[in-house]
Amino acid sequence: MSVLEGKELRIIGFLCNWCSYGGADTAGVGRFTQPTDLRIIKLPCTGRINPLFVVRAFLNGADGVLVSGCHPRDCHYTAGNFYARRRLEVLRSLLPVMGIEPARFEYTWVSASEGQRWRTVVQKFTEQIHGLGPIPAFKSGTCLEACLGTAI
Amino acid sequence: MNIGVFVCHCGSNIAGTVDTVAVAKAALAYPEVVFATDTMYACSEPGQAGIIEAVQKYELDGVVVASCTPRMHEATFRRTVERAGLNRYMFEMANIREHVSWIGKDKDANTNKAAELVHIAVEKLRRNTELTAGEFTINKRVMVIGGGVAGIQAALDCADGGLEVVLVEREPSIGGKMSKLDKTFPTVDCSSCILGPRMVDIAQNPNITLYTLSEVESVDGFVGNFDVKVRRKAAYVDWTLCTGCGECAAKCPSKKTPDRFNEFIGKTTAINIPFPQAIPKKASINAAACLMLTKGKCGACVKACPAGAIQFKQEDEIVTEQVGAVIVATGYDLFDFTQYGEYGGGRYPDVITSMQYERLLSASGPTEGHIKRPSDGKEPKDIVFIQCVGSRDKSIGRPYCSGFCCMYTAKQTILTKDHLPESQSYVFYMDIRSPGKGYDEFIRRAMEEYGARYIRGRVSAIQPKNGRYLIKGVNTLMGDQVEIEADLVVLAVGAEAAKGAPQLAEKLRISYDTYGFYMEGHPKLKPVETNTAGIYLAGSCQGPKDIPSSVAQGGAAASKVLGLFSKDKLASDPQVSSVSLQRCIGCAKCQSVCPFGAIEMTQFRGMTKASVIATVCQGCGNCTSACPQGAIQLSHFTDNQILAEVHALCPY
Ligand SMILES: Cc1cc2nc3c(=O)[nH]c(=O)nc-3n(C[C@H](O)[C@H](O)[C@H](O)COP(=O)(O)OP(=O)(O)OC[C@H]3O[C@@H](n4cnc5c(N)ncnc54)[C@H](O)[C@@H]3O)c2cc1C
Ligand code: SF4
Ligand code: SF4
Ligand code: FES
């Protein structure tokens, strides 16, 4: 199945297992209604995120990408989110060079107990992406595509 | 590969807003899926039997269950597939309850989303490999941090179970808050009479090593094999020589030292033994108050000590302890009420905290159990108790209930009447919370037998008036203003996380909530576990708790450790990183980012290569993201797997 025509946009979430995935669970347990666009890919830690995953998602048609992990100093593996922050900051500054609106990408921190906050994050980000509309298609065979192919 | 997909209804929890039949049908179109069905309760006995039957009938190599969050039942289903003859890691879950049916209203959108989550689970599973857990030996010693009643119980239970225990307490004596209490609710039995013998047991148990005046400096390692560095702070007294005779304190000229144990009511000496029942019964010097250590002259204690134990040159010492598990029992601290202007902000000497009042009531306290006003030493006649000071107040960031204040306030009114039969107690309260066994009866006794007057409402101001205090408040039941004149005001200050709790949590790599209380593994099913293997919680460090609950948790944590140590070896999570020797160029980037020191650089045919110590690797995958070669891959979270998930969702 694919995106529900006209209703949803394609939003990918990379969440760490320990905090944000738990936060999304907490929101579920609290029955905090959210928009349905987001699809969550669970990772052990935000430190596992290679920024190229995000680029790959955009090139393949994601309209928005959201990364969420534990609050600074709360990472289950102590420092993963600090590494993630540095990697994702670099990514953010490069997005315009790649022709991707930076507002399509965001990273944030949500703890396992912050169900309410998770709902707000999802609502705001989904609204933001709907404001931007679908991402323009990338031409296949561009040099960006080629670079990405060799990188991972 | 043959994959089977099971889409759970969870009664109506999922099926109410997700068309589970349609999801199963969609799943059949995904690569390598040979069987897909919906099922009423996948986790139930018949549900699991259905999975096992299908594995055998359709010769499945891997299973996807679409149901609740993996935090709930991943372990359950891993066991199910294992019983069906598969490797337990040939299993993936799609979370279509917490992440779909419970949060989305639109059934079409939910169904579509659920099907896509099944798709990514299938793509991931296709790239899973069979994993076998390794084994490692465990060091069957346990460290208990915090020597309050919870930590004492945990330490004694572990020691009785035959374990070697290291108990670390930052104050000079163990006992925690309970050692400061006079009597305890709901039985009004003497606190030190029940706690004292247990403290002595700690000192006398050959299995227990006690470090007081000590704090945890750093924690390395992992379940079964922790290396904990403990800082033993200088007491300026050689405790191997000190006999606890107290001659030093009797001669110490620095007699105006703030008395921490007595909650700063009264004064003590720079060298002291905090209270008569202290364990260990050893003297220590308060460096800030000691004339020798601050001004370089005095030494009265040196002359007084018959054992020659005083050592002004003593320094902090770091000891390393190897343990296999840690129980954290660091308790709570009390809210600082001075931020409330309406209670005088700390300016009125006769507006005191409940813990100070416990010290006034205690026979071994600064007034030898006579209730006297701190200002003039007179016996009070009218006493006002104010509950919920720093509890259930969003405006100061303390929305939670401290749990035990209703009960101890009732206790204090009863004790007040026992001590001063002519006195009258008034209690301002918000609600009475007394759900324990015999607790509500106890509150009633305070009101009916001991004549405490309970006023439902808050206090808006305390004003000095002719050597007494005028307490202005409202009575919300009567809907009118009340003014009471009193000699003494006791504030039922709420509980907050122990000082330094977040810092300790970071050393232990356990989570804490917004208020600094430690997070249990699961609010219902794992009350004394944490999400870090081998680290357990007991008592009020997890949230305010009275003594019975703290003791129950101390025992529960001990039984968890005894259970853990009942095996000689532990299985390691095999979802760890490994290095491809062909690809690795020996740049050591992975080593520099690994938070656990799990990567060694080794020599292989004259070339430097990274190598992962599987038992140390915790599976965070930070190395995988750092490697410029894609040489080090975290199993079950490889680059290929994550990209396959991305492709499943973004196919263009
Ligand atoms: C005024 C008052 C009256 C009360 N009366 C009653 C009563 O009558 N009945 C009842 O059931 N309950 C009563 N309580 C509640 C009772 O105090 C608690 O239930 C009990 O003390 C909790 O025990 P604990 O071991 O969890 O914590 P604590 O007693 O707080 O012990 C924690 C210990 O850990 C130590 N510690 C803290 N941090 C560290 C660290 N980083 N490293 C090393 N050590 C550390 C502390 O020094 C302390 O010794 C009362 C509470 C108050 C405030
Ligand atoms: S996954 Fe890599 S970085 Fe993380 S603990 Fe294991 S070896 Fe270290
Ligand atoms: S980062 Fe990669 S290439 Fe460098 S040493 Fe580690 S595994 Fe080898
Ligand atoms: S585990 Fe959540 S960010 Fe590292």
Give a written overview of the molecule:
The complex is a heterodimer of chains A (152) and B (652). Chain A is α/β, with parallel strands linked by helices and 152 residues long. Chain A has a single domain, classed as Rossmann fold. Chain A contains five helices and four strands. In chain A, α1 links the parallel β1 and β2. In chain A, α1 crosses α4. In chain B, α3 packs across α4 and α7 packs across α8. In chain B, the strands form twelve sheets. Chain B has a five-stranded parallel sheet. A five-stranded parallel sheet of chain B has the order 20-27-21-22-23. The mean pLDDT of chain B is 96. Chain B is α/β, with parallel strands linked by helices. Chain B is globular and about 85 Å long. Classes of the chains: A alpha/beta (152), B alpha/beta (652). The interface between A and B is large, with 53 and 57 residues. The complex binds flavin-adenine dinucleotide, iron/sulfur cluster (2 copies) and FE2/S2 (inorganic) cluster. One iron/sulfur cluster (SF4) binds next to α17 of chain B. The site of one iron/sulfur cluster (SF4) has 14 residues of chain B, from α17.
What would the average pLDDT of chain A be, to the nearest integer?
90
Span between termini of chain A: 27 Å
Span of the ends, CA to CA of chain B: 25 Å
C-alpha Rg of chain B (nearest Å): 31 Å
Q: Estimate percent helicity of chain A.
A: 40-55%
What oligomeric state do the depicted chains represent?
Answer: heterodimer
Helix and strand composition category of chain B: alpha/beta
Write down the Rg of chain A. Answer: 15 Å
**Shape category of chain A:** globular
- Uncertain parts of chain B: none
Mean pLDDT of chain B: 96
Count of helical regions of chain B = 19
Biggest interface, CB < 8 A: A-B, 53 and 57 residues
Tell me the number of structural domains of chain A.
1
The CATH architecture of chain A is 3-Layer(aba) Sandwich
Number-wise, the strands of chain A total 4
What is the count of helical runs of chain A?
5
Bound molecules: flavin-adenine dinucleotide, iron/sulfur cluster, FE2/S2 (inorganic) cluster
Unreliable stretches of chain A (pLDDT < 50, length at least 5) are none
* Major β-sheet strand ordering of chain A: 2-1-3-4
